[in-house]
Amino acid sequence: KQIILLPGDGIGKEIIESAKLVLNSVASEYGHRFTFHQHAIGGDAIDQYGTPLPEDTIKACQNADAILLGAVGGKKWDSLPGYMRPEKGLLGIRKTLGLFANLRPVKGFSSLLHASPLKEDVIKGSDILIIRELTGGLYFGQPSERRENGNAVVDTLYYHRSEMERIIDKAFQSARLRNKRLTSVDKANVLESSRMWREIVEEKSKDYPDVAVEHLLVDAAAMKLITQPNHFDVIVTENLFGDILSDEASVLTGSLGMLPSASIRSDGVGLYEPVHGSAPDIAGKGIANPLGMILSAALMLRHSFQMEEEAAEIEEAVNETLEQGYYTADLHIKGGKQIGTKEMTEMVLENLT
Amino acid sequence: KQIILLPGDGIGKEIIESAKLVLNSVASEYGHRFTFHQHAIGGDAIDQYGTPLPEDTIKACQNADAILLGAVGGKKWDSLPGYMRPEKGLLGIRKTLGLFANLRPVKGFSSLLHASPLKEDVIKGSDILIIRELTGGLYFGQPSERRENGNAVVDTLYYHRSEMERIIDKAFQSARLRNKRLTSVDKANVLESSRMWREIVEEKSKDYPDVAVEHLLVDAAAMKLITQPNHFDVIVTENLFGDILSDEASVLTGSLGMLPSASIRSDGVGLYEPVHGSAPDIAGKGIANPLGMILSAALMLRHSFQMEEEAAEIEEAVNETLEQGYYTADLHIKGGKQIGTKEMTEMVLENLT
Ligand SMILES: CC(C)[C@H](C(=O)O)[C@@H](O)C(=O)O
Ligand SMILES: CC(C)[C@H](C(=O)O)[C@@H](O)C(=O)O
Asked: What family name appears in the similarity comment (chains A, B) (predicted)?
């Protein structure tokens, strides 16, 4: 299996190393062969090649079985014009590879729930999978431009029916593998695109009679995620709503640094990255939390390589490490021990059976 | 002063009556003359006149000094086509009257904070004013239609510079009257409209050197509202982001039923409504919480009539009533007494000095 590593910016380099070590260990245990090639993206690529997404990186990713990404962005590149910003690298690779389905599981670790901003009885038992459409909508619709001599501006929310259908299908399929409840989020009382979205969800629901569907307006969803997070099983929504709601959801458990994400397409090729950012303030200090990245590698094994057992083993090893009381600077476990990126990675390696 | 009452649907009729009683009491105390005229909107108007926003209602509102609205919507009208939905009445009146500035204060009541989904040390001290642009953006941009034989769909996010300027000015002015900190929320790493928004905020900030401005991406704002609500003073953002974030913020204090809102234009004419919905399940039972509506009437006195003292008196009376332990079915105060809509209104009237 060809795996492309895109460390990117800030702590990206440090944590991607951890993922590689864990994958190598799994490979030798199960007799798999993973080959790794590293390429530049984001601010790192701007500094080296003058563009956030070099041709060379695109080509390598097009031939890959899966991609691991650390993080992109940082203050250093914030004043560059839009097309030269680190984020463009990320948006470009998603669009070029057609990675239309963004999976964001949100589940707390019992040893870390005490750090949640929510009361324990509110957050307890929450286990949500947010599925966000990732290559359409306002992010890519044209026109997106100034008008009337610079006195007006438009962005365009465009979706083709097929783009909605494939993500909604993905969501129904995912719900089937979980608790069979799907919440579709839209703004059908205002947007025509949401009305079409809702129609398609209704149509598709006939193909998945075993999945219970509900519709929720995006404003109501933003409330319910906080008041009743354990109401949800799978949530599916369009690109921008998904951006906002998945980030909102990511802080509910109190351990953002632990959350993985997958961006995949139908043939199984995918890009995997932790939800947290590049954290330039702690980069190079050896204290970054590698667990979100390691858990992203586990998602890669599950979704791109169908290696369910291997994925579950990594997830268990991470859980065990926390249960043993080890934590990084972004976390805290009462009576536990704070350790750095390398030690944390070693602990996970030890806990892999 | 000419005040139009639009009770609307569900509990709207009951709570608008409470606001009227409170306003009459204030009027006689201070020697003001308020005249009230009641008109139909929303589902109620659909049932009576076959349209969510009758001509007659529009005319009355155009001649009014201020408008009080109960709530619109309900399952009963959910299957009607888009243009015939109760919400269209609300969107129509906002747009027709040019009520571009939606003010949503979020502040907890100490006797109710225990009901917050957030831990007390997280929510304590929060006092946020969200200012949402209300008549532009994706809500009203054209085209908004099906394309390609119904196989595609577009909505349009359109803003004229002047629409951005006036709401941003309003936000700076509001920040000046508060703690002089303004958070502007956008998605400038993706949307052209957000980049123009951010430019205008930067330009305007020169006119308000006493106000400290920060920019926050909408996804980051959705996180920070939960992890650090007391970081914020005034938040300003465009229509759809404001819809999502203000609803998200409204549940943080644990007493949604208490929150008022104002939708105003530059000459001071405004529409005032509680944040909660029409709650059809408890309509007609006499148990609805009238305090969000009563506090909306206070906002009316402050923003449309410049009656600051009168507004503050109502707010104090509400606070006192809670401190005395009275609450409605949607709330709970330990050792207090649950009462109905009428009794709650009477208690507030008694507490008006
Ligand atoms: C960096 C940014 C363009 C990106 C997005 O909005 O999609 C990020 O917020 C994310 O969610 O991955
Ligand atoms: C009813 C709906 C159209 C409306 C909106 O989205 O503006 C509501 O959610 C609000 O926030 O007042």
From this structure: Belongs to the isocitrate and isopropylmalate dehydrogenases family. LeuB type 1 subfamily.
**Same domain? B136 vs B180:** yes
Pocket test for ligand 2, best of B9, B69, B87 (most atoms within 8 A of CB): B87
* Same domain membership, residue B263 and residue B229: no
Chain B residue with minimal CA distance to A150? B161
Question: Chains A and B: how many Cβ contacts under 8 Å?
Answer: 155
DSSP 8-state class, residue B169:
H
Per-residue model confidence (pLDDT) at position B75: 87
Predicted confidence at residue A84, as pLDDT, reads 87
What is the structure's pLDDT at A164?
Answer: 98
B11 & B61 share domain? yes
The DSSP-derived string for B221-272 is HHHHHHH-GGG-SEEEE-HHHHHHHHHHHHTTTS-GGG-EEEEE-TTS-EEE
CA of B163 to the centre of ligand 2 (A): 19
- pLDDT category at A79 given cuts 50, 70, 90 is confident
Q: Where are the alpha helices (DSSP H) in A160-265?
A: 161-176, 192-205, 218-227, 239-250
Ligand sitting nearest the alpha carbon of A136: 1
Q: Are residues A18 and A133 in the same domain?
A: no
Q: Which residues of B touch A152 (CB under 8 A)?
A: 158-161
Same structural domain, A221 and A304: no
Tell me: do A122 and A244 sit in the same domain: yes
Of B91, B158, B223, the CB nearest to A152: B158
Q: How far is the CA of A129 from the centre of ligand 1 (A)?
A: 17
- Do A247 and B219 count as a contact with CB atoms less than 8 A apart? yes
Residue of chain B nearest A253, judged by CA positions: B227
Chain B interface includes A115 (CB < 8 A)? no
The domain that holds B43 is classified in CATH as: 3.40.718.10
pLDDT band at B84 (very low <50, low <70, confident <90, very high): confident
Q: pLDDT tens across A148-207, in order?
A: 999 999 999 999 999 999 999 999 999 999 999 999 999 999 999 999 999 999 999 999
DSSP, collapsed to helix, strand or coil, labels residue A346 as: helix
Which domain covers residue B199, as residue numbers? 117-252
Across the interface, of B122, B138, B219, the residue whose CB is closest to A243 is B219
Decide if A65 contacts A34 (C-beta within 8 A). Answer: no
Q: Assess if residue B112 is contained within a domain.
A: no
Question: How many domains are there within chain A?
Answer: 2
**Residues B132, B30 share a domain:** no
Q: Which of B139, B208, B326, B327 is catalytic?
A: B139
In this structure, the answer to whether residues A246 and A337 fall within a common structural domain is no
Closest residue by CA, ligand 2 atom 5: B243
Residues with Cβ within 8 Å of residue B84, at least 6 apart in sequence:
B46, B51, B52, B77
